[in-house]
Structure formats: structure tokens, C-alpha cells
Specification:
With 237 residues, the chain is α/β, with parallel strands linked by helices. It has eight helices and eleven strands. The structure holds zinc ion.
């Protein structure tokens, strides 16, 4: 990207390159979601909480009013929506909110109204909690944090379980014949080693992680020279 300078010339802009693209969104979906739809980490969810009033014709006005009261309590602190349309059933709205990956849903029916409470339902575990109205804000905060952490550590554990440390080439080659996942091995930094590994195993370097100490790097998985990097190898599918 270039721009016109004051003196009429052309210059390049200073740009960051985060590589944030559809690929990253794909990874987000694949990492956290389930068969009911998206599961979004609260920090990335555009809507954190959806309120769904559960009403019949005879109590419609009161219950919707109660739900709006909850909405007004929460709207300054959270990204919250209310779904009070009369076209679809509560069950339909629950399923829609799950499909959209909204981290928390609040169900508010006539019984909740008379008990001055709300039912909070987690998207990640489906767990339901009945909470007195005056504790709703604190509980939402706590749950959003817990959902965020749980999703993160579950993903981290999965990655660790699927990352294998291999330091001899025969094992490395055998692994990629049948194995799935990541392999951490030393690499001397020579592109020729990388190319030959790719030709023989179809595995390529995915990332060179920061912050590894020298002992961890060992020697190049292919040529045996001192490794400059600890590389993460995987096959693309
Ligand atoms: Zn090498």
C-alpha cells in the first residue's frame, strides 16, 4: 500500500501484519464449538448475555416487563440483548442463542418473576443456575470469567496432548505415516533440511515458538547439526 507524500511522491505506509484472516476464525470455530453450534469465548463474543422471557398470553405484559427490568440492570455493564419477540417459542430462542454461541442466557418466567430471581444457563456446559436478582451482575461476571478460563485451558490441554517431542528421524518419519498432531523437533535453520523433511514426510514447519531455551532445542531432526530452533511440525490436511 502506497500513499502520496506532501511533495507529490509516493511512499509506503507503515503497516502491521497480524495475519488475522478467515483462517483464524476457522480455528476459533473448530477449537471451541460443539454439535449445537458456535461456542464463543466471552472475550470475543459480541453479545455476552441474552435474556429470554418465558411467557403465556395471560402473563405476557408482566413477564416481558420483568425481563426488561433485568435488561436495564445489566445493559451498562454487559453486552446484553433481549429476545422478546412473540413469533418464536422460548425453546426455539434457546436453540438460536446456542447456535450463535452467546456465552450466557438468562431465562425469566413467571416463577422467576414472583421469586425475584433469574435462571442463568452456560453455553459451554449447559449448566443452569438460579440466582436472586440482586446477585445477577456478580454472578454473570464470575461465570463469564469461568467460561473464558475453562475454554482456554481445555484448548491448551488438547494441544499439549496432541504435541509430541521427537528427537530421532526414524521415529519422526514413522509418526507422520500414521500419526496425527504436532511434533516438536530441533531444526538447524537450513531450508534444505526443511525441504527434504517435507518431501519425505509431507510435514512442514508450522511455527517456531518463542522463549525456548538452548537445552530444549537439541540437534536438527534431519541432519543432526546443532539446532537453532525448536520447530513445530505438522501435516496440512
Ligand atoms: Zn538440519
Amino acid at each position: 500500500v502506497t500513499f502520496q507524500t506532501r511533495d507529490g511522491g509516493l511512499d509506503y505506509v507503515w503497516a502491521t501484519s497480524w495475519g488475522v484472516s478467515t483462517r483464524l476464525i476457522g480455528a476459533l470455530i473448530m477449537t471451541h464449538s460443539d454439535d449445537r453450534g458456535l461456542v464463543l469465548p466471552p472475550k470475543l463474543a459480541s453479545t455476552e448475555v441474552v435474556i429470554i422471557p418465558i411467557f403465556k398470553n395471560k402473563n405476557k405484559t408482566e413477564v416481558i416487563g420483568y425481563a426488561h427490568g433485568l435488561f436495564d440492570r445489566l445493559k451498562s455493564e454487559f453486552s446484553v440483548e433481549i429476545n422478546d419477540d412473540e413469533q418464536n417459542s422460548p425453546g426455539w430462542k434457546f436453540a438460536e442463542a446456542e447456535l450463535q454461541g452467546i456465552p450466557l442466557r438468562i431465562e425469566a418466567g413467571p416463577r422467576d418473576m414472583s421469586n425475584k430471581q433469574a435462571v442463568l444457563v452456560r453455553r459451554d456446559t449447559g449448566e443452569k443456575l438460579t440466582v436472586p436478582v440482586q446477585e445477577v451482575e456478580a454472578k454473570i461476571k464470575e461465570l463469564l470469567e469461568d467460561i473464558q478460563n475453562r475454554l482456554f485451558y481445555r484448548a491448551l490441554t488438547f494441544r499439549k496432548q496432541n504435541t509430541h517431542q521427537i528427537n530421532d528421524y526414524n521415529t519422526f518419519r514413522d509418526f507422520f505415516k500414521t500419526g496425527e498432531g504436532f511434533v516438536e523437533s530441533g531444526w538447524c535453520g537450513n531450508p534444505e533440511c526443511e525441504t527434504r523433511i517435507k518431501n519425505e514426510t509431507k510435514a512442514t514447519i508450522r511455527v517456531l515458538p518463542f522463549g525456548r531455551n538452548e537445552d530444549e532445542k537439541g540437534s536438527c531432526i534431519f541432519c543432526g547439526e546443532k539446532a537453532k530452533e525448536l520447530a513445530v511440525f505438522a501435516k496440512a490436511y
